Amino acid sequence: MDYTLLFVQTLNGLQLGLLLFLVASGLTLVFGILDFVNLAHGSIYMIGAFICASLTLWLGNFLWAVVIALPVTGALGFAVEKLVARRLYEKDHLDHVLGTFGLILVLETGAHLIWGPAGITVPLPAWLDGQVELFDGAVIPSYRLLIIATGLAVAGGLFWLVNYTRLGMLIRAGASNRTMVSALGIDIATLFALVFALGAMMAGLAGMLITPITTASLGMGGQIIITAFVVIIIGGIGSMKGAFIAALIVGIIQTMGRSFLDQGFEFFMSENAAETAAPAVSAMAIYILMAVVLAFRPQGLFPPKVR
Amino acid sequence: MKRLLGAALVATMLTGTAHAAEVKIGFVTTLTTGGAVIGNDIKKGVDLAMEHIGGKMGDLDVNLIFADDGFKPEIGKQATDKLVKQDDVDFVAGYIWSHVLMASRKSVLDAGKFLITANAGPGPVAGKLCHKNFFSSSWQNDQTPMAMGEVLNQNGVKSLYIIAPNYAAGKGMVAGVKRTFKGEVMGTDMTAWPTQLDFSAELAKAKASGAEGLFVFYPGKAGGAFMKQYQQAGLKDSLPLYTTFTVDALSLPKFQAAEFTDVLGSQFTQQWDPTLDNPQNKRFVADFRAKYGSYPSFYAAQAYDSIFLIKSAVEGVNGDLTDMDGMRAAMEAETYPSVRGPYTYGNNHMPIQNFYLREVVTDADGNWTTKIVQTVYEAHQDTYASECSLN
Amino acid sequence: MPKLTRNGWVTLIAMATLAVLPPLLLWSGQPFYMDLASRLVVLAIAAVSLNLILGFGGLVSFGHAAFIGLGAYAVGIPAYHATWGGFELVASYNGLFHLALAIGVSALYALITGAISLRTSGVYFIMITMAFGQMAFFLFQSLDVYNGDDGLTIDIRSELPLINLDDPLQLFILSYLSLAAAMILVKVIVNSRFGMVLQGAKGNNERMVTLGYNTYLYRLVAYVISGTMCGYAGFLLGNFTTFISPDMMHWTRSGELMFMVILGGAATVLGPILGASAFVLLEEFLSSWTTFWHLPFGLMLIGVVLFTRGGLMGLFKGRGR
Known about the structure:
Chain A is mainly alpha-helical. Chain A has a two-stranded antiparallel sheet with strand order 1-2. Chain A is built from 11 helices and 2 strands; from the N terminus they run ααααββααααααα.
């Protein structure tokens, strides 16, 4: 057993999980409090990435670009809420799905028209482009450590926000019983818009963080949105804690699957078959997990307490 | 609403199509999705070719129709069907992606039309599924990685780790390298295509395997992502990188903008290079740079060639497009001036050509481009030719 | 003169147009539009099947495309083995065998996944059906023998007695008659006692249960019928395109089916056909107008959701209904 490889892969899984959490957190908030199914969340992830990438090339500094791009993405979320989402709340989930699917098409094509099909590659400052040797043989790119640190910090910040501030209290109350909150005189419309914008910022941040590793490109939202939905179903809709834990589980399962499943398969099938079957099965694994969770605990692992 | 649409249909019906004195070419490529970056370069190559031939082949005007495959076999097949059935083209050309070609080829060949691939070259079309009306202006997928395997042997690399995407071309690349590489393959990872862009797990495995070299194939944006992560993992000294179709004229400007200096000096194999010294290539590269401000990719070069290949067919029969045998013979004779220099066709209508080792360098103006280090294969024929029943 | 409601007249006129226009186009030298019509009709069958449980039953299945894929592979896999050898048990070009396989596999898959999924409701039902759909997608993607993601091309269509599927007109006629049969079947089911219970459960499940109906069983039966019908559509689609790939089962395709149903007007008999027509025709004409056709298409989807009630059928019905 190569413990160094195991450790490195666990870190990779942790990093993937934290990025998933950033996307899922916004999704679960919007779904839990606004009862709004937002398929276009992945598109906001993509647009956040593009805005940051353009700013990086223009300003010449990635970190400053993130700082500026975050509120811009939040503002975009705010605009989407006002123009589209708001009118869909009283309709049923089916209409949400249809409407936000249309929104995906609009945002994707819009991105194609604005930024072209090629995608944008973003350079990192030299101090982030190196590696860190944690212990003998375990070499991790420093940037991935930064992602992990950022993810944990944001998770911590969200935890503080939701549990120790008035806004957080309103969010938790709204997740439990929206009508009551409104009846108590809270401006629900603004609360909703803020929640939506916050979710958009989180998704955008995830997109910005992944861009220096891959690229900002068209279609990057499509894959992450489904995984994010799986995460919030497993974790429990409306629950930040659930989203966090489920995201980590999913990230680690996916990474471990890619790393070790093909060797496992080679015990009982040919090398070629194992090489193509393993990625497929590790992709299926999270859906199987979701189906199992739904079968035994349909409300998810950590659902918010509902009146 | 149905009534309006019905009226529109009838109106289109009545306009009909007129064929008088023209040759119709349908060009299937990728114009939407991320793959469009390749499709756009191909379009530039084709447009330049049209300019150079003055929009005419012999006495006939050329009517060129571009169609989008949306990077999906199903859409590509639909687009092909439309070109064949509705536009009634004489030639269908293009096809970047192997899986799109496989899905679409039957529609063209069953209709008795010529199919020219300007990029994709999966094994079956060169072997069991070869067809008298099918021609390639590019290569067979296995040839380029086979040349790379040969380079690895020549460089004394004893062990290799392979990472490639899990689709027809990816599998073909892996098969090609494994065919000629004489050392040990420590492990092979096939990644989900085209969705997987984070290769952290695979890179960690490659490093842990202790292999002497890393071979990858990642066309398009995945190539950029991979190279980025490779640099960030700091593997350049411990695990040197050998690629095919991952670094090209499309990705180099982006790498240059992103200051990814690790790519300078990296090597890959190809059947063409902008520095090849023949008059057609010199004109092609110079005019491409003048018109578009960048170096052409091999995709554009092959697409440019495909237009001239078709031109040789049309002129070979003096514009008599009903003479299929004549056009076929003209193309088989390979009389057109290719930008890669002269080559011949095998029985399966795949090129028998040279393969070169290219290296990334900086040109006199400071742009990142490539030059040829050595010729790896001369007049190389693909391994599937023997499976083709054409003689 | 038969007594028809306004809906009924619209349905009759629409179906008549659909019967007459494509053959006319074929004979006037536009075979491509006949192909478009065939594809439209086959997708309409799938949409009609989905409407049974979605529109009338209130069960939002986000994995229905899996049935289309299963039906298509029921044609592709036997044809593949008949051409290239292996797996003697299923190797066959016989269309009736393909049909039986398509219906059998779809029904079985519907029974198993339905039995599990129907234990949940609401958004959880949506997600679990989507999960099953994705699992089918990944399963077929991993089958290297059938080229996985690159898809299977069949050279020879299903061989049926009396009908030659290689003739586009006969394929269209078969598809059209199947569509008519599907519509009649749905109408009969919906207006029967079984259908009443199903619709009642859509409106208020607890009430139906209190009245003594085992709604779980009713829904399961409807789900299996719906899935089998959709599998049949897959059989037709596989024969029509001759290219079968796991992509046919992807969640985005299930989404497209759902949109056809909602766009046309859920819980109506003609709605899914209008939706399928609008979808296919818009896709075709918009894409020949501009490469960026997804933009106006997306705006249109948003517009339909925001500004219409009951989709396209709702427009015909007029306001206030």
